[in-house]
Amino acid sequence: MAAAPVWSVDPRTGKQRERVADEATAADVDAAVQAAHRALPALADRVARAAFLRAAAERLEADGERIVAAADAESALGLPRLTGELGRTTGQLRAFADEVEDGGHLDVIIDRADPARTPPRPDLRRYKLPIGVVAVYAASNFPLAFSVPGGDTASALAAGCPVVVKAHPDHPATSQLCAAALRAAAADTRLPEDVVSVVHGFEAGVELVRHPRVSAAGFTGSVKGGRALFDAAAARPRPIPFHGELGSLNPVLVTPAAAAERAEQIGEGLGGSMTLGTGQFCVKPGLVLVPDGADGDRLLAALSGALRATAPGHLLDDRMREAFLAGTAGRARLASVAAPVAAGTGEDERTVRPGLFAVAAADLGAEHELLFEECFGPVTVAVRYTDEAEAEAVLGRIEGSLTATVHLGADEAAGGGGAARLVARLTALAGRVLVNGWPTGVAVAPAQHHGGPYPATTSTSTSVGATALERWLRPVVFQDTPEALLPPELRDTNPLGLPRRIDGVREQPAGDGAVRGPVAG
Fold it and tell me: How does pLDDT run across 496-509, given as a tens digit for each residue?
């Protein structure tokens, strides 16, 4: 049977743009993984690895006009948004190059032998090694920053792991252009091009997570798809780590004091956040707790006005548009649920209009479970609460999220009115807690954490920020090993100038700490 073609489709028209590739067969997936495995030793050199990441950023920028144009044609996200996303992507690659050169990710710990201890302590020297070939499953809503050249790929390469990416079907042409840029960057820095490769097709994704030479996987997508791959990863004869970002409601709680002080500002801000990217951000606020009464009414009036003033937009593909329309229709049918702003199709029927649902906390029953599920697109649910007990009952029904936000009054933000208790309560729900802000927008920074309790993610790791590369490393310790047999990172002389902890004390590398040689492993 001939391989199925992979078409690039314009979501604005629903028409095929070009035939990009063919879906990968099991043999194709095997060939890509085996080639990646053979490339693993070449990534051991940290000097070359850092140079490769910077060259990748340069190659993406050099072809940026063509890449952004293709991404817009396949996603309808707009040239300004995608130009910014390309900058975020190249900045992320360079940030990981800095991490590689710093060497702190190796987490070198040395405890010298101490025969006087009870019991005596042997000489122990610990650091981290690349885990092996990593499978990356590209996201639909970020064709650059969370796809072929995105955070999972960049962090895995920074850790020293070759990557095989399962391209998302919504942007295959963009994926091919980005893969070509990364492979050219590998050649520029004298690394095997197969440190990065791309496969297409649903079955290819299944074959990839099952391949015996794949050692870990990163995924961004739906709960259904992510859970199926997570289960497949766990069911292997040799289970592997599966770092999946699945679904997130991203609750927002507005206190009565905050609503009294700035109802209109909060309502307008919420409208901007929930419609950003046509509501297709993984951190879109999907449920907001609004106090009952006149101040809450003012907030929802401002939100409703902002939504009515927002132009209809395109979703990423027909399947997502149909799911959005079905999801909003199902919510509208629920008892006691009002729709101050009705979501639906735009005038050309290929776009969607944003919507708002409202319901009293006291009216929520078991039949309202749909309101506590993510609805991908520009819609949110406002739950009106009368007291702290009602708010707590609603929070108790929310599953793990990427973010949780609280809007406080001025006195509360200064530490009054039980604000610390509210922040602590939200901390139990999410990996990133915001005060008086909006969750859309995830800064690429060393302290960032983009993850959360299940179903937000399947692990405790982050997919954004410097520590994202920890997902692709495994620790190993050497006991009573002669100096000549130790890897350079663990020798007393510290020839690579690495930050280390020796006998519990942080050691600053000598000189400028620059990378001066390859890393074994």
Answer: 999 999 999 998 76
- Which residue type does 456 have? A
Geometric angle at alpha carbon 230, from 227 and 233, rounded to 5°: 155
Whether the predicted pLDDT of 247 surpasses 90: yes
Strands 5-10, 15-22: parallel, antiparallel or unpaired by DSSP? antiparallel
pTM beyond 0.90: yes
367 labelled catalytic: no
* Residue 445, Cβ density class (10 Å: 0-12 exposed, 13-18 middle, ≥19 buried): exposed
Q: What is the DSSP letter of 23?
A: P
Which pLDDT tens digit goes with each residue over 34-62?
Answer: 999 999 999 999 999 999 999 999 999 99
Rounded CA gap, 184 and 192, in Å?
Answer: 10
* Residue 457: DSSP 8-state: B
Which residue has tokens 């819609």? 379
Residue 518 corresponds to which amino acid?
P
Residue of 101, 245, 374, 390 with catalytic role:
245
The SS3 assignment for 126 reads: strand
Point out the catalytic residue in the list 99, 101, 207, 282: 282
Active site residue 282: yes
Task: Name the residue among 196, 244, 236, 255 with its Cα closest to residue 219.
Answer: 244
